[in-house]
Design a protein that fits this description.
By secondary structure, the protein is of the alpha+beta class. Helices cover 34% and strands 18% of the residues. The protein is built from 30 helices and 31 strands. A hairpin with a 5-residue loop joins β2 and β3. The protein is globular. 28% of the residues are buried.
Length: 907
């Protein structure tokens, strides 16, 4: 079945040269017309998800969830006028079937890729077709006969013999007959230990003749497959021993056979094998063996790991969790616990373990490091620990100042209503134009005197100084006017609607309005009144604050603050729950549990209030607390400091949100971007309630996810993480602090390095052919900064690409394919725009001097000629110097004069 899609010409050229690509099936739940949920199936190209995507329909075998396709041809797209659009191509492709043409093309692709010794996955498409398609013996023979010479045919037969070992017995029988047809021998591969292990399996079996090697291994290792334990006890069968090993604390015995099993099992089982081995080390069943861990990374059976990838998740990201884990543990062990793997070491690891033709890896660190799925942070809706009230009085002198009052009234009118505008002529010194006056002007018909909307360019609209367009239904109208506006008559008289003119304003009415406002608040006597805190300023408060003096401020610890018992940051629930029986603890609706929960909440609320009072005494410098509030002279900076430190967010008079009294919440987990739990304890305690806490990605964390990451807290070996494994070999990386466990700085560095390596690795794909670029090893210490494509057929072959993180900001990734150089020939960071400065040149000169080497003349000549320290920056897109100037409001403007890019957010 052939279908088509439109893609860019450059992508088509890349895919035409390498015509095979895989689609992956995706599912999306959508609501139908009757609100019922429907499952929508669609295919996406693994390497080009955003470009090739279409409804599954009848295309491909959805039960397999992957589909191998081959590009047929491409045609330039016609635009609406019928002209060729040479930038877009309609690409035609079809699902690969076991036809002679497709098989011949696949064999050719496999042979071509196998010529590249760095390509460890040259057989992916061939193995996929051999495993998933029903290929007749005769078809394969006919394809081999098309090979032009005997030597090439022998080479292809050797490929089939070597890589066919993971296929089902029946498929291997076909290959054996084909090889026999050409006088070659093929030995069917089916490990004796696997055949024996299958005999121990009970219940519903598996078709041994039609299932491939890995399906059979997975069947034996599956927990859903029952094992005849009476027969299995004491057996030497490695696979059965492996399954039993997972269910006991006994020694495995001969650990040297683990590497041969390691390459046969699935990725999750590999991780279990590593954890279970370390558990034996912990139990003293065996000693830690570096050589064994090395074989978990690379051994002579590694090809089977790649075979599994080819027939289960072809061209998907290669999962490197286990090899990276083992490599990291070895590095830590060999450095006596001082460091994990380096940036260059991890990058080299990714390069050597990926498919160089389709470079994509995934560390999946969440399998070995805890993520922030239980981190406890401050609730977004929490109102804060304190509230406040103003003690105010009316400033009579301001209220009696007629000119000042009028200024306030004009200010309020301008902010709550809009001015009425009148037309003026730019040729007559801005004088007002009367009705019909424009039509009599001879200039209106002059060329270019109208804009694109047909309006006259010589007419400018100016605001009246004494007229506002108002809404007569607005209650605040009574504040200003001495008479009621008749909206209907006014609307008839004024095209702009209801108009308020200055002669309608009454200062006397406004004076009385202000006094009436003050009387609405609690009267404290002596002309003072109490104004509660507010977040959103109402019109009334906006008026009142123009004429009040704030004498004092009352600060009250907020009552009824809650902390969920699951967080228990004060240890209260631990004590309260001791009174409950096991049955009551397991039933949140039992009367005992409800009573304990109520007691817990009251105790926590009291504890928070008590701590708030103590910290307020410290920050306010007074012990005068009357049991409800502190009252201090009003100082704006002091109040602002208190509100920030006590997380004031909403007034208690505002509408209560559902969780406004909840202090803490669980950090929500982003399924797409996982964050790992690697917090740093704050040097200071949480001021408001004197509580130790961690900093985690800019947020305060009061309960991290590291509580069960020590051997003391964890006995279930399958839950081991990197923290448990490093502790087992004697290098614990968690330290007990007041707020909980804190990871070593080396762990945070490791996580940051792994993420940075991934960003850089994604850039190592050649844009000419899609293959992996390799480091130019001849560049010494810079070997991981310069890369080039090694594909001899690629137009980009041998071209050096500079790829490195910015020396200044450490986060900007400089790619010489995308960024320009400054006039001093330094690449410009796309993130912070750094290129060079005087201190950098001085440092380079110093390095030569310290090494007792002559300083190059070119470097000496650059001293004092750096750019960034002289406020000179350049556009990374075009290389032009960024213009730094100011607008009419004295605000700096940073813009590229050539490409017009705005850099105000960068500098």
């Amino acid at each position: 079945m052939q279908i088509s899609t439109q893609i860019e010409d450059s992508l088509y050229e890349e895919m035409r040269k390498h015509p095979f690509f895989f689609l992956r099936l995706h599912e999306e739940n959508k609501h139908g017309y009757n609100s019922s949920e429907e499952t929508y199936l669609y295919w996406e190209a693994i390497d080009h998800e955003d470009v090739i995507c279409f409804s599954a329909g009848n295309f491909g075998n959805i039960s397999i969830r992957y589909c191998l396709c081959k590009v047929d041809k491409g045609e330039f797209v016609l635009d609406k006028e019928g002209h060729l659009n040479e930038n877009m191509v309609t690409m035609y492709f079809h699902e690969v079937v076991p036809s002679e043409n497709d098989l011949y093309a696949i064999l050719y692709d496999c042979v071509s890729r196998s010529m590249n010794l760095d390509d460890k996955y040259s057989f992916v498409t061939l193995l996929w077709v051999l495993d998933k398609c029903s290929i007749s013996q005769q078809t394969l023979v006919d394809v081999l006969r098309k090979i032009p010479n005997a030597q090439s045919r022998v080479y292809v037969l050797e490929i089939l013999r070597q890589h066919g070992r993971c296929l089902s017995r029946n498929k291997q029988m076909v290959l054996a007959n084909v090889c026999e047809e050409f006088g070659a021998r093929y030995d069917i591969y089916m490990p004796a230990m696997l055949v024996e292990a299958l005999d121990f399996c009970q219940g519903k079996g598996i078709d041994r003749k039609h299932a491939n090697l890995f399906s059979l291994v997975d069947f034996v290792m599956s927990s859903r497959t029952d094992i005849d334990l009476s027969a299995a006890v004491g057996t030497d069968n490695p696979l059965i021993k492996l399954r039993l090993w997972f269910k006991s604390d006994s020694s495995f015995g001969d650990y040297s056979i683990l590497p041969s099993l390691f390459t046969l099992v699935s990725e999750p089982v590999k991780l279990l094998m590593v954890k279970r081995y370390f558990h034996d080390v912990r139990l003293g069943n065996t000693e830690f063996d570096c050589e064994l861990i090395k074989q978990f990374i690379d051994n002579k059976y590694d090809s089977f790991t790649r075979y599994r990838y080819s027939i289960t998740t072809p061209m998907d990201s290669i999962i490197l969790t286990v090899p990276l884990l083992c490599d990291t543990l070895l590095t830590l062990y060999n450095t006596k616990g001082k460091e994990f793997q380096t940036f260059n070491g991890i990058l080299d690891f990714a390069i050597t373990h990926c498919d160089s033709s389709h470079p994509s890896v995934d560390w999946k660190l969440e399998r070995i490091l805890p993520i922030c799925n239980h981190g406890v942070i401050i609730n977004n809706d929490f109102k804060g620990f304190v509230d406040y009230q103003y003690v105010c009085e009316i400033n009579e002198s301001k209220l009696q100042d007629k000119e000042g009052v009028e200024t306030v009234i004009r200010y309020l009118l301008d902010h709550h209503f809009s001015r009425v505008y009148y037309p003026s002529c730019i040729h007559e010194n801005g004088s007002m134009l009367l009705n019909g006056q424009c039509e009599l002007c001879p200039k209106i018909n002059e060329p270019n005197n109208r804009n694109s909307s047909g309006q006259l360019n010589c007419v400018v609209y100016k605001p009246y100084a004494d007229r506002w367009k108002v809404d007569v239904s607005e209650p605040s109208m009574s504040t200003f006017v001495s008479k009621v506006i008749d909206s209907e008559s006014e609307a008839k008289q004024n095209a702009v609607g209801s108009v308020l003119t200055w002669d309608m304003v009454s200062v006397k009415s406004f004076h009385q309005y202000v006094l009436n406002l003050a009387s609405k608040y609690t009267n404290l006597g002596n002309g003072e009144f109490l104004v509660p805190s507010y977040k959103d300023k109402s019109f009334e408060l906006g008026v009142l604050e123009k004429f009040w003096n704030i004498r004092r401020v009352r600060i009250m610890p907020r009552l009824g603050i809650k902390v969920n018992e699951n967080f228990d940051v004060f240890g209260v629930w631990k004590d309260v729950s001791k009174t409950l029986s096991k049955a009551e603890l397991q039933n949140e609706h039992s009367s005992g549990y409800i009573a304990a929960e109520e007691k817990y909440r009251q105790l926590v609320s009291d504890e928070i209030s008590k701590r708030c009072v103590e910290s307020l005494k410290s920050i306010l410098g007074t012990n005068e607390y009357n049991g409800e509030y502190f009252e201090i002279p009003y100082q704006e900076d002091v109040l602002e400091n208190v509100l920030n430190k006590y997380y004031f967010k909403d007034s208690s008079t505002d509408n209560n949100q559902k969780f406004a009294d909840e202090f803490l919440m669980e950090k929500p987990v982003n399924s797409k971007f996982l964050s790992f739990c690697a917090p740093k304890q704050s040097e200071d305690k949480f001021f408001a309630i004197n509580l130790p806490y961690f900093w985690c990605r800019g947020k305060e964390c009061f309960h991290n996810n590291l509580g069960n990451q020590t051997l003391e807290e964890e006995n279930k070996w399958w839950k081991y993480s990197l923290y448990h494994l490093v502790e087992i070999i004697g290098y614990p990386k968690l330290h007990k602090k007041d707020a909980g466990y804190e990871p070593d700085d080396a762990v945070r560095t490791f996580i940051a390095i792994v993420n940075k390596v991934m960003q850089k690795f994604k850039r190592l794909k050649c844009r000419g052919c899609g293959h992996l670029m390799f480091a130019n090893k001849s560049r010494g210490f810079n070997r991981y900064n310069y890369f080039s494509c090694v594909n001899p057929l690629c137009p980009e072959h041998g071209k050096s690409i500079y790829l490195n993180y910015c020396f200044k900001c450490k986060r900007g990734l400089i790619d010489s394919r995308d960024t320009k150089r400054c006039p001093n020939n330094w690449y410009i960071c796309p993130d912070c725009l750094a290129c060079c400065d005087d201190s950098m040149y001085a440092r380079q000169v110093q390095l030569y001097i310290l090494a007792n080497k002559p300083v190059p003349d070119k470097l000496n000549a650059m001293l004092g000629h750096g750019h960034n320290d002289k406020n000179m920056f350049f556009c990374p897109d075009c290389g032009c110097q960024i213009l730094i100037t100011k607008d009419e409001h004295d605000n700096e403007i940073k813009i590229c004069p050539h490409c017009k890019r705005d850099f105000n957010d960068k500098l």
